[in-house]
Amino acid sequence: MDYEKLLSAFDFAELRIEKSSEHSFRLTEDQIKHAFGSSYGISVRILENGSWGFASANYGEDVKNLLKRARKIASLSKGKIRIDPDLEINKKSVGSVSSSLDFDCALSNLKELLADLKGPKITSRTVSCSDSTSIKQYYNSLGSRIVEKSARSYLSAGAVSKDGTNVQKGSTRSWSKSGFDDLDFSIATEARSMALRLLNAKSPPKGRFTVVLDPEMTGVLSHEAVGHASEADSVVDNESLLKDKVGSKIGNENVTIIDDPSASDFGFYQFDDEGVRAKPTVLVQQGVFCNYINSRESGYSLGIPLNGHARADGYDNVPIVRMSNTYFQSGKFSKSDVFDVKSGVYLKGMKGGSVDIFTGGFMFKAQEAYLIDRGELGQILRDVTISGNILKTLYSIDAVGRDFGTSPGICGKFGQHAPVSDGGPHIRITNLAIG
Q: How many domains does the chain have?
C-alpha cells in the first residue's frame, strides 16, 4: 500500500506500524514462570483544525478506515495545537534484531544465577529477565519513511537476608542491546553480598552532612531532579520550575548534564516516534540551563529546534516527551579526592524516592550507605534518605569525579513506560539533609 500517498492528503498525518515479541522469566526458590508474547499493531495520528485525532488497531484494519476515525476525532473540537513540521525528511532503515532466544540455554543460565544467590541467612531469592525485539515503521505526510529495529534484554537478581527480626535486601541489574547471551550473569555475587552486609548496618545520623553519591545515585539526581523538569511538555503546562530558565544559572560550574539518545546504552534509539532524528541535548552546561527535550508540539510552543525526544509505549499510545540516557558529565577530581572529607556519608544505589518538578523538592533513598571518616569508609548504614531542593543542591556540588558509570531502568510517565539509562561520576555535595 502507498502509505505516503494516503497521508499526503492531510496537513499533517503519521502512521506507525509496530511488530514486537518478548520472553519474560521469573524464578524463585519454588517457582519458575515463563511467558512469551508477540504483538502487531498500527496507529495513525492526524492534526486538523488545531486538534489531534488518534486511532489504533491490533489487527488488519485498513489504514484508510483508521484515518477516517482519526479525522472524526479531530473534528470534534477546534483547538490551538500547532507543530514544528521539521524540515528534515528521513528515509532510513536502521538498527538490527538479534537472533531468537534459545529457551533451554536461557533457562539453564537463569537457574544457575538463582543458585548463586544462595548463602547463609539468605531466606529468599528472585531472578527476573526479559528479552524483547521490536520492528517499528514510521511514515508521515511530509515524506518520511523510517524503519528502526531494536533488541533489549534486562536481568535483575534479588536476595533477602534475615537475622532474627532484621530483614534486608540486596539487588543488582544487567542489560544488553545485543541479545540475552551478552547479559552479565555474575550479578548474583553482589546481590547476595549486599543483602548480608546490610544485616550489620546501623540507622543513619540525622542532620546536614557532606555526602558523596555513587554513579547510580548521581544518575538518579540527574534524571529525576533535572531531566523531568527539562521535559518541554511540563514547561508548556507551567508545571516545571525550569520554565523561562534557558540561559539562567541553576547550579555552579561543576554541573553539566546531557540527555543523549545516541549513546550506546539502555535508552538508545536513532529516531523518535514522531520520525525526528534523536539528538544529544545539553540540559545544563557548567551550571547554566541550556535546553528542553521536546516533541513536535512542545518544540513549536516554545520556539526551539526539535531534538527527537517524543516516545510512545507501543503502537497504541501517542508519543510524549521522554528522556533517553541522562548523564551528569565527568569532572576533574580523582575518586580519592572526591572522598577527601573529614566527616560525611557515602550513598550507593537507588532504592526509591520522589521529586516535585514544580517546586524542585526531592527525596531519594539509597540501597546502602557508609559513614566517611577522614576519607575512609566506616560503618555501613541502612535506610538513608537525602532530601533538598534541586536549585540549591546544584550549587552545593563541590567535587565531580573523573570516573563514570551508568544504570538501566524503566521510566514511567502518564501511564507509559520507556527504557532509559542514567549515570555519571562520583560527586560530592555539601550541607545536604539526611534522615
A: 2
- Which of 199, 224, 239 is the last residue in one of the domains? 199
Q: How far apart are CA 304 and CA 177, in angstroms?
A: 31
Q: 335: domain range?
A: 207-434
| φ, ψ at 166 (rounded to 5°) | -85, 115
CA–CA distances in Å: residue 398 to residues 198, 255, 429: 29, 9, 6
pLDDT tens track, the chain, 435 positions: 789 899 999 999 999 999 999 999 999 999 999 999 999 999 999 999 999 999 999 987 799 999 999 999 999 989 999 998 777 899 999 999 876 789 999 999 999 999 999 999 999 999 999 999 999 999 999 999 999 999 999 999 999 999 999 999 999 999 999 889 999 999 999 999 999 999 999 999 999 999 999 999 999 999 999 999 999 999 999 999 999 999 999 999 999 999 999 999 999 999 999 999 999 999 999 999 999 999 999 999 999 999 999 999 999 999 999 999 999 999 999 999 999 999 999 999 999 889 999 999 999 999 999 999 999 999 999 999 999 999 999 999 999 999 999 999 999 999 999 999 999 999 999 999 998
Q: Between the CA of residue 248 and those of 55, 282, 388, what are the distances in Å?
A: 41, 14, 20
Q: Same domain for 140 and 243?
A: no
Pair 133, 82 in one domain? yes
Which DSSP category does 201 fall into?
-
- Taking alpha carbons only, the member of 316, 312, 274 closest to residue 58 is 316
325 and 180 in a common domain: no
pTM: 0.96
Residues 228, 343, single domain; the answer is: yes
Q: How far apart are CA 75 and CA 423, in angstroms?
A: 44
CATH number at residue 181: 3.30.2290.10
What residues contact 209, with CB distance under 8 A and at least 6 apart? 343, 344, 345, 431, 432, 434
Residues 300/84, Cβ–Cβ less than 8 Å: yes
